[in-house]
Amino acid sequence: MKIKFPVFFGVLALLPCLAASGAVAPPPQPLHLVGDHWTPYDPPADFPEGSQVHIIVKGDTLWDLARTYLGDPYLWPQLWERNPYIRDSHWIYPGDPLVIDLAVVEPEPIIEEIPEEVIVPPPESEETAGGLPFPLASSAEIYCFGRLIQDESIFSFSINSAERIQFQDHYSEADVVYIDGGAEQGIKAGDRFFILHRHNKVRHPISNSPLGHVYPYVGQLKILCAKENSSIAEITFACDPISLGDVLLPFRPIPVPLVIAPDPTDRCDDPNGKPTGYVIHNKDFLSMTAAGQVLMVDLGEAEGLYPGQFATIFRDNPVEGMPRLIVGEIGILTVEETYSTAIITRGWSPIIVGDRVELK
């Protein structure tokens, strides 16, 4: 008997299984018998000494297994990457082994050179032939974008001074800075923080309602030592110049989604009835964006989004009664409660704030 079930990630809690199953690719074929179970894959039989191996059971998903073993469901791409025999993350099979002998690996905070062209190869390229997963973006494109903040009280600490304050107005990697929190506030040597800079207020492009302030990530720092109510830290990574007054958030790894590129949206496709939203912000507040650039959309956890999902960008035809205009596609990088960040994977026309978003 064929046993199959898709990995629905965070959508499981929000959508009926039948509705969600229509959103994933068909199951890999053909199935063959491996030991006492059926699978389309060629799972390994031998593992390095000391490996932690989970045998998949009915109902497992990479999303839930990442939550159980890594403490964060959004780290599911790390499980997938550790088990390359799984060709499609939407389909895992009871009886197959899943190697779990990894911990959250914090990427080295090195700015990567961002090419002019989008790094996401099209589905027909050699790099993705056969449906092999590839990273949706570079780590720099995630760690140097930013967040949309509605409640600015989440920032408990900021940079108040610097070792070279008498000679510099801005700071970068290897500079030593001083922050307004210490041991009394729970800070200790070795703690790491994101550094963020307050930017413009964002309003919804249609309703004009306030959505919050954009806080770009400008760098990261590491605590060298903690005094009673202050700490000394070294800047370990910089995207942009860092200033006194920039605020801090505890560092957590942000995994780059591994994806299999979907077929391009056809201009003749009708709306699919899935959740729709709007482009609400793009990096540096540019008036138009191109493939490889990052942006924000007003769809988030409430709409069942998860990292690695794709969406179509379109706008209404200015000529009444004419079909919508398909202008591009995006891949979702990170997901928050009310918004998501994304990278443009295809662009047929300039994509601007106010363009529509439809999940694929």
Provide a descriptive summary of the structure in words.
- 7% of the residues lie in helices and 31% in strands.
- Strands 7-9-13-12-10-15 form a six-stranded antiparallel beta barrel.
- It has helices spanning 17-21, 62-70, 76-82, 139-143; strands spanning 32-34, 37-39, 53-55, 97-99, 134-135, 146-149, 157-162, 170-171, 176-179, 192-196, 201-203, 210-226, 231-238, 242-243, 247-250, 258-259, 276-282, 294-297, 310-315, 325-335, 340-347, 356-359.
- The model is unreliable at 1-24 and 103-130 (pLDDT under 50).
- The protein has three domains: 9-99, Membrane-bound Lytic Murein Transglycosylase D, Chain A (Roll); 146-250, Thrombin, subunit H, CATH 2.40.10.410; 258-359, Elongation Factor Tu (Ef-tu), domain 3 (Beta Barrel), CATH 2.40.30.
- With 360 residues, it is mainly beta.
- Helix 2 crosses helix 3.
- The chain is built from four helices and 22 strands.
- A hairpin with a 2-residue loop joins strand 1 and strand 2.
- It is flat.
What is the CATH fold-level name of the largest domain?
Thrombin, subunit H
Provide the spatial order of strands within the biggest beta sheet: 7-9-13-12-10-15
Strand content: 25-35%
The secondary structure category is: mainly beta
- SSE order, one letter for each helix or strand: HEEEHHEEHEEEEEEEEEEEEEEEEE
- Using the CA coordinates, give the radius of gyration: 22 Å
| Average of per-residue pLDDT values | 82
Number of helices: 4
CATH homologous superfamily (4th level) name of the largest domain: FlgT, C-terminal domain
- The N- to C-terminal Cα distance equals 31 Å
Total tally of structural domains = 3
